[in-house]
Every structure is written in C-alpha cells, then in structure tokens.
Specification:
By secondary structure, the chain is an alpha/beta fold. It has 16 helices and 20 strands. The strands form four sheets. Strands 7-8-6-9-10-11 form a six-stranded parallel sheet, with helices on both faces. It has a six-stranded mixed sheet with strand order 15-16-20-17-18-19, sandwiched between helices. Strands 3-2-1-4-5 form a five-stranded parallel sheet.
C-alpha cells in the first residue's frame, strides 16, 4: 500500500513536492486554502494528483503518513494543530526533498544578504564547471530540482519558515549571513524565537559539516558561540579569533583554514557596500571549501551581477540616479542601502509594517536623506518616526506618483532610492511587482 503525502499549499514548493512525491511512489493530495492557479491545476491533473482549493478538508488528511506544509502557512492555524495531535509528521519542502538526494547541500539563511550570497555562490560554482542548481527561496523549488535533475550540488536559499519544519535536514555547508528583527509577527513579536529559528540550519550538522557565520553581527556571533555543535565553525568578517576564518585586507579576501591562507584579489569588485563584501566573503569561502581555485573565484566575483531588486541601478536621468531596492523589506536591509548612498537621497519607503523599529536609521536619515516619500496605505508610523529628521515628507499610494514626486524634488547628482523597509502586500502583489513598477515608472519619466 502506497504511503499518503498531503501537501498544504499549491505554490512553487507545493507543486514541486507533488512532482517529487509522485516520482517516489506516494499517493499525493494537494490542499490550498485559496485559489489554485489554472496552470498548476493542469499540471496536478497531468500527474493524476487529487487536489482541492478554497478549503482544507481534515477528513481527507487524517490517514496521511506525511504532511508537507508550504512556508507561508503558520504553525498556529487550527488545521496544523489538528494534524499535529494525530501525530502526523509535518515537514517543510527542504526536509522532504533532502531525503531523496545524495548531493552536497549548501544552505544559506539570514535576514538580509541570503539571496545575493546564494546567487554569488551558484555563479562561482557554475563558472567552475560544477553540476549545480540554485533552489529554495530562489530559482525552482528544491523538490522539483531533485525530481527532474538531481544535481551533484545544490545552493539553497532557506527562510526561517522553512527551517521551522525540518527534522533531519543538514546542509554540508551552512551559512548565516546575519540576523536582525524580521517577520516578528510570525514569532509572537519575540526576536529570540526568530533567532532560534535561523540557528536551526545547524541543528543536524555533524563533524563533517561547516557552519559559516557573519562575525560582524554581534548578536549572531554570541548565539553561535552558545550552540552545542559538532560542525566546524568558520566566521567571516572582522572576528579573527578562530583557526578557520575569512576577512578582508587591502583589497583582498583572505581565507584562513588550519593556518593555510588563500588570498583573493577584490580590486574592481562591481558591488559596493560593506554588506556586499561580506556576501562575497561567504560565497568565496563556500567555493574554497569545495576546492574551487582562487582564480575562478576572483573571475566570478568580477563578472557577477547583483540580485534584481537589491540596490539595482535602474537609470540615470538628468544627473539623478534611480535605485531599485524593493527587496529591502526590513529595517536592516534599508540600513545597508542608506549606508551605501554617497549623495543626497530622496527615499521612497513604506508598505505593510512588520513590527519595525526605525531607530537605527535615524543617524543615516539625518545625514543622507533630502526628502521622504511614503508609499503605503497606512504611513502614520513612518511619518511619526522620521518627521523630526527631514524637512520634506510626502504621502502617496501609487508608484507612478511616487516616482514623479521624487523626480520633482531631487536635485542634480541626487539619488532616488526605493528601499521600503516593509512588506509590499498593501499596494503590490509582491516585492518583485513593486520593484518592476518602480523601474517602469522611472523609464516613463
């Protein structure tokens, strides 16, 4: 008798898990509380997978052997509680997929920088000729990749929500880029819970595995030093007290491993900002641990193009630079963005607040921001936070209008920066939609 796999959520991870589940001989049932996309329905029908939409029917799930819960579904909903009381294992997609591959797994998590670090790591390994795929929160779902390609290496961008539902998942190389308050609405407004969730990337690592972490992040460093792990700890940044470490020195990334030094020249590195140098340190260290030559690492860093919607240079119009940082959905990401601005800046900010504390931005706003344009349904928290630090603050609820206003306010050699610090769901489908609308509005100027 076939084992029964229930999939909650019919998005990218749900469909990928269905494809892998069928390949592995499961009886699969997909349930989505919302509407399922027509293209997804067609694919599920072709796979002979039963599905339901706009509801979750518990009676159809009570005989399940395993439940894969999509990352957007909180553990607190009644259905998940009901399944838990029946002792049915509830896992994330990365947990389910990892059972069916023997590949080397590179797991990258963190509040900010994980997308750029994952893209950079993938780019280096691909340039080195490795059979590698990019999956997780970026690219295809991990499960779909395992089902259809099963590469030798996977670079996985992993969210805290995915880590919440792992059981045995263990990356051979784990990376934590940083940890600052984010998604606190999902963690009972408790930063400690969120921190604990991110550290789960190390939960099942053994003495054969490596955990890279950003030593410039004091909270993260303190937390890592308290965990009981068999994995080799390898910090990157400025903390040099470990025997394995990566740091920057005179336009070089220096990787020390058991007192052996490898130096990678970063002259002409195209991405600016300390945060991007840290991302490059992490990606270079992963590649070095996987025996990629330092020449290949350097070449790859020099021709790497940054992640879309992350400090993306859009256009320069009449000596005004327009920069799309729509992926900056929390305060820490905006801090990095403002820190890297080297000219007076018109800052477009706003959206769905996630329990933000804006205090860390005050000095940068005072120093670098000429004007603030609030772009959201409810801007009151932003107005209250920043009114004392700027003479000019305006509200709008349309991207086109925000860009037009910014164009009027900005002066020669200024920056116009979209860096929202908030989720996008009040006015946009997602951060990509928000960023694309910004780019379109700029092109129409």
């Amino acid at each position: 008798m076939r084992e029964k796999l229930i999939i909650l959520g019919a998005g990218e991870s749900g469909l990928g898990t269905a494809i892998l589940g069928i390949k592995q001989g499961y009886e699969v049932f997909v349930s989505d509380h919302g509407k399922i996309a027509e293209a997804t329905k067609r694919q599920l029908d072709e796979l002979a997978v039963a599905w339901e939409e706009n509801t979750h029917t518990l009676s159809k799930m009570s005989d399940a052997n395993c439940v894969m819960k999509s990352p957007g579904i909180p553990n607190s909903i009644p259905l998940v509680n009901a399944l838990s009381t029946r002792n049915i294992p509830i896992v994330s997609e990365i947990e389910f997929a990892s059972k069916f591959t023997t590949a080397t797994l590179i797991g990258i998590t963190g509040t900010n920088g994980k997308t750029t670090t994952a893209l950079m790591t993938y780019h280096i390994l691909k340039n080195a000729g490795y059979e590698v795929a990019l999956a997780g929160n970026i690219g295809n779902s991990f499960a779909k990749e395992v089902a259809e390609n099963d590469c030798q290496y996977y670079v996985l961008e992993i969210s805290s929500f995915q880590l919440d539902d792992i059981v045995n998942f263990a990356p051979h190389i784990g990376v934590i880029t940083n940890i600052t308050p984010d998604h606190l609405d999902r963690y009972n407004n408790d930063f400690g819970q969120y921190l604990k969730s991110k550290l789960r990337i190390n939960k099942n690592q053994s003495e054969r595995d490596v955990l890279l972490f950003n030593a410039d992040d004091e909270v993260l460093t303190e937390a890592v030093e308290k965990i009981d792990t068999q994995a080799t700890l390898h910090p990157f940044g400025s903390n040099l007290k470990y025997s394995n470490t990566t740091y920057s020195e005179q336009e070089h990334i220096v990787i020390e491993k058991q007192k052996n030094k490898t130096m990678i020249n970063t002259t002409d590195f195209p991405l600016y900002g300390r945060h991007n140098l840290l991302n490059a340190m992490a990606a270079s260290t992963v590649a070095h641990l996987l025996d990629v030559s330092k020449d290949t690492i350097r070449e790859s860093l020099l021709n790497f193009k940054g992640a879309p919607h992350r400090l993306e240079q859009v256009l320069k119009i009449q000596h005004i630079r327009y920069i799309n940082d729509s992926k900056a959905t929390n305060v820490n990401a905006v801090y990095f963005a403002l820190e890297s601005m080297n000219a007076p800046t018109v800052w477009i900010v706003g959206g769905v607040d996630k329990g933000n504390d804006y205090e860390m931005l005050y000095p940068l706003v005072r120093e670098k921001v000429r004007a603030i344009i609030c772009l959201g349904v409810d801007n009151q928290k932003i107005i209250s936070a920043f009114e004392p630090f700027t003479d000019l603050m305006l509200e709008t609820q349309s991207m086109k209008e925000a860009v037009l206003i910014a164009n009027k306010i900005a002066q020669k050699n200024d920056n116009v920066l979209l860096s929202p610090a908030c989720a996008s769901f009040d006015l946009f489908e997602n951060y990509e939609d928000r960023g694309n609308q910004f780019k379109q509005a700029v092109r129409e100027l």
